[in-house]
């Protein structure tokens, strides 16, 4: 073996720090894929290229590096760097304010010394004219006025000085306390990417780097506007995006994907179903009542607010993130039972929805990854080009205030690419990005269940809604140019028609009342016969015709000794299996209609049934 070959084998690779820029980000509902580009210039032999200061939340198993040039990539490592931790801007700002206040206090202390010296000098020379020299009355008055003016000015200045000093000291104490608490929090290191390359000669080239990162995400949001029930529905599709990855995304191309790379792609296994007696079978007995929305504040164990915490409805695509003060508010679908609170560096919490106010404390659980990933590539002289997979493109044209976007339908996912570059800083702030605007033909119908609610709800029914590639999300509702509340767009429905509730319309008046004279209880032989009767009055106070569906019910017996007879239903559509009765009405402006519901129940005199509920 030659000396040159031996030297080459045992030679220590040189190290070189290079820079890379984030060019494109694909944002998932939980996490993001970062795509970076970097140029390099290396000599012959092995070189370790170091890209410093990357996000501490990189998934080490996801990193991939592709090289373009006459060199070979030998390995890719990701390592934590505690020596170059990024101090947050807020920490720098606190220290700067503290330094300014300390300087102010020093100036106030110096001013107090000057005032003290002035008073001492004045007291030393207060012997008016000496003991042997008399003063005229005019001179005496002038001297007294002089001393009064000077002493008063000094005393006023001393009072103001003390007040400012006390205020400054209190502010310094608060700043020192806050700075100490912030400094004592666990150190989150940055990540360095180490790329070992080999070349036979001095070459230039480029690197394409991609990896998954946590502490970022997006949620679908909608603005649903209906001018009136004779015009199409205006649907604006938005992305509420946030990131607190530790790296700013400056002027990057954004894609929003419905993919879930964090979830396992393994097909589940259907195990044997062992059927046993009911008394040996356990069920989840947690009671559940839908409450519409939940809000609250999320803090750490010290009581400090946590911005950028992901709050999601378990088993759905509904979610939001906490703001800079740790506050959040989320609208719930009708099936919501649990909320999941997650934030990298803290233990996630999976909580039953217990009410409309849920304040949550997350506990720290920082476990930094330091994993090595080795990816092999052959030498390549290919130029750096952008390669696009085959996609079905659906390019829409919009008004000037809507972003130009491209919908890319892949085999298993859908992506929306925003043409305009965006800058999103790493501070947890939520940013709304307009994605699409649709003018959708809709069938409008009013819907009411007066047994539960006296108000009528306006529902827009969308046909062929699947072509819009919508996701389940919160929707802000506007009707007749007025904000009327929030709802859930159930885009994961299996129905051919997608229904969107546009909220209550109080111009339709509904009254359901019990008719006491027809509600009787009689004993006939060994059975009671009990009847109930209700009158439903509906009036249209709008200036246009409305289509209204009224829903009510009568009880269905599941015991042979109890019989139920429907006596009156005002020609409603009756489902005898469920007891549901539907009336489809068309009401002219100012028109009023009355519906009657009456049923009779027969049951044994030794038993009792509950008919009023």
From TrEMBL:
Residues 25-122 form the DUF4140 domain. The keyword Acetylation does not apply. InterPro entries: CarboxyPept-like_regulatory, CHP02231, DUF4139, DUF4140. Residues 207-605 form the DUF4139 domain. Pfam families: CarbopepD_reg_2, DUF4139, DUF4140. Keywords: Coiled coil. It comes from the Bacteria. This is DUF4139 domain-containing protein. It comes from Belliella marina.
């Amino acid at each position: 073996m030659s000396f040159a070959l031996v030297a080459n084998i045992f030679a220590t690779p040189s190290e070189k720090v290079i820079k890379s820029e984030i060019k494109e980000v694909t944002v998932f509902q939980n996490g993001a894929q970062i795509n970076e580009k970097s140029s390099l210039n290396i000599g012959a032999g092995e070189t370790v290229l170091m890209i410093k200061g990357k996000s501490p939340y990189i998934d080490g198993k996801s990193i991939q590096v592709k090289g373009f040039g006459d060199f070979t990539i030998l390995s890719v490592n990701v390592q934590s760097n505690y020596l170059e931790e990024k101090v947050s801007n807020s920490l720098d700002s606190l220290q700067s304010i503290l330094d300014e206040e300390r300087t102010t206090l020093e100036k106030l202390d110096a001013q107090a010394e000057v005032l003290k010296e002035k008073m001492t000098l004045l007291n030393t020379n207060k012997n008016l004219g000496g003991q042997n020299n008399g003063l005229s009355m005019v001179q005496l008055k002038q001297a007294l006025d002089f001393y009064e003016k000077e002493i008063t000015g000094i005393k006023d200045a001393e009072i103001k000085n003390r007040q400012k000093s006390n205020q400054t000291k209190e502010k310094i104490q608060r700043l020192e306390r806050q700075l100490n608490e912030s400094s004592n929090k666990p150190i989150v290191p940055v990540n360095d990417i180490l790329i070992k390359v080999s070349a036979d000669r001095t070459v230039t080239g480029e690197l394409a780097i991609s990896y998954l990162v946590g502490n970022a995400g997006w949620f679908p949001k909608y603005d649903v506007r209906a001018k009136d029930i004779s015009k199409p529905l205006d649907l604006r599709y938005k992305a509420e995006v946030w990131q607190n990855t530790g790296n700013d995304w400056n002027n990057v191309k954004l894609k929003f994907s419905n993919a879930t790379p964090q979830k396992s792609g393994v097909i589940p296994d259907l195990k044997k179903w062992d059927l046993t007696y009911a008394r040996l079978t356990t069920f989840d007995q947690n009671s559940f009542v839908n409450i519409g929305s939940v809000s609250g504040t999320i803090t750490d164990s010290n009581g400090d607010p946590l911005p950028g915490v992901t709050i999601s409805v378990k088993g759905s695509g509904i979610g939001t993130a906490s703001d800079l003060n740790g506050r959040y508010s989320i609208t719930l679908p009708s099936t919501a039972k649990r909320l999941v609170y997650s934030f990298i560096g803290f233990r996630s919490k999976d909580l039953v929805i217990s009410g409309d106010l849920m304040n949550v404390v997350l506990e720290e659980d920082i476990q930094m990854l330091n994993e090595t990933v080795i990816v092999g590539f052959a030498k390549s002289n290919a130029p750096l080009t952008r390669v696009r997979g085959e996609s079905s493109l659906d390019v829409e044209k919009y008004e000037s205030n809507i972003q130009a976007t491209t919908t890319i339908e892949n085999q298993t996912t859908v992506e929306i690419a925003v043409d305009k570059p965006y800058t999103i800083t790493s501070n947890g702030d939520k940013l709304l990005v307009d994605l699409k605007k649709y003018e959708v033909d809709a069938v409008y119908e009013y819907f009411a269940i007066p047994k539960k609610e006296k108000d009528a709800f306006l529902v827009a029914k969308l046909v062929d809604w699947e072509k819009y590639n919508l996701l389940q999300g919160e929707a802000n509702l506007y009707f007749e140019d007025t904000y009327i509340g929030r709802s859930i767009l159930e885009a994961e429905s299996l129905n051919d028609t997608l229904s969107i509730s546009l909220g209550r319309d109080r111009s339709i008046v509904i009254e359901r009342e019990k008719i006491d004279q027809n509600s009787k209880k009689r004993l006939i032989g060994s059975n009671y016969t009990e009847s109930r009767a209700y009158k439903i009055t509906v009036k249209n106070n709008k200036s246009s015709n409305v289509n209204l569906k009224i829903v009510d019910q009568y009880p269905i017996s599941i015991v042979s000794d109890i019989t139920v007879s429907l006596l009156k239903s005002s020609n409603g559509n009756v489902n005898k299996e469920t007891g549901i009765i539907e009336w489809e009405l068309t009401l002219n402006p100012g028109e009023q209609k009355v519906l009657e519901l009456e049923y009779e129940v027969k049951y044994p005199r030794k038993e009792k049934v509950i008919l009023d509920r």
